[in-house]
Amino acid sequence: MLPGRGPNGRAAATRLSRLLGTRTSWTQVGDGEFFCPGCGGDRNYQRLTGHRRFALFGVPVLPRGETGPVVECAACRRHFGTDVLDHPTTTRFSAMLRDAVHTVALAVLAAGGTCSRASLETATAAVRAAGFDDCTEEQLAALVEALEADTGRFTGEPCAAGLAIELHEALDPLAPHLAAPGRESILLQGARIALADGPYTPAERDALTTVGAALTICSDDVTRLLAAARTPS
User: Fold this and answer.
1) pLDDT per residue over 36-48, tens digit each?
2) What Gene3D superfamilies does UniProt report for this protein, alphabetically (predicted)?
3) Using CB atoms within 10 A of its CB, is residue 138 exposed (0-12), middle (13-18) or buried (19+)?
4) What's the Rg (C-alpha) of the chain?
5) How far apart are CA 162 and CA 38, in angstroms?
6) Whole-number Å distance between alpha carbons of 5 and 81
7) Whose CB has fewer CB within 10 Å in the chain, the N or C terminal residue?
8) pTM, 2 dp
């Protein structure tokens, strides 16, 4: 049997690790709330940096350099790389999704040119389903009017730079955290709002193309989805 193999070898290795080894002392440098991959939900965390030391008989004696930083979950105590903080919490993700649907609805209504009752009803239903439970048709119509007044833009015009920026601000941070069906669902909601009062106008199609680009949906898929939305299910 080779040295270090078998029960005796493992026992010897265990004894050696107790005599010689590396110990890490952690220092907290921040905290907050994050989505813990280990727990599968929102948890508090501590951001830690560590100093490694060579240990003899369990006593740190020589520095071995720094390690980390890491993120430690306050619940499961597991350590993760700091890139885990790039993932939004469940609460933050819900707010991002709600705001995205609201912004898309306003953009499509503004592009429609009329804010017809059918479009307002469809838009209100989408915004309510996204989380704005108290949204009304009157509120959306007033917001579209305020948007026009603020930008100097009239309904029915192509997607202006300011509106395109708003769409990208709402959708760009969300897109990486949505699977393809989720991104397509947001675009289709906008398409249904546009189609509620008739075929797409050029301005509505332009706005929806901007939505698709912000959601990182390729142009061919945007064309396919907009065509599919016209087909009664």
Assistant:
1) 999 999 999 999 9
2) TerB-like
3) exposed
4) 27
5) 41
6) 34
7) C
8) 0.77
| Euclidean distance between CA atoms 82 and 71, whole angstroms | 6
Q: What is the DSSP letter of 232?
A: -
Sole residue written with tokens 């989805």 = 225
Q: Report how far residue 94's alpha carbon sits from residue 178's, in angstroms, rounded to the nearest whole number.
A: 12
Q: Give φ, ψ of 10 to 5 degrees.
A: -65, -40
Q: Tally the C-alpha atoms within 13 A of residue 199's C-alpha that lie toward its C-beta.
A: 3
Whole-number Cα distances in Å, 196 to 43, 52, 204, 213: 42, 64, 12, 22
Give pLDDT, residue 12: 53
Res 233 pLDDT > 60: no
Structure tokens at 189: 């909601």
Cα(101)–Cα(157) distance, integer angstroms: 21
- pLDDT tens-digit profile of 5-52? 555 556 555 555 556 666 667 788 899 999 999 999 999 999 999 877
Helix, strand, coil percent values for the chain (each to nearest 5):
55, 20, 25
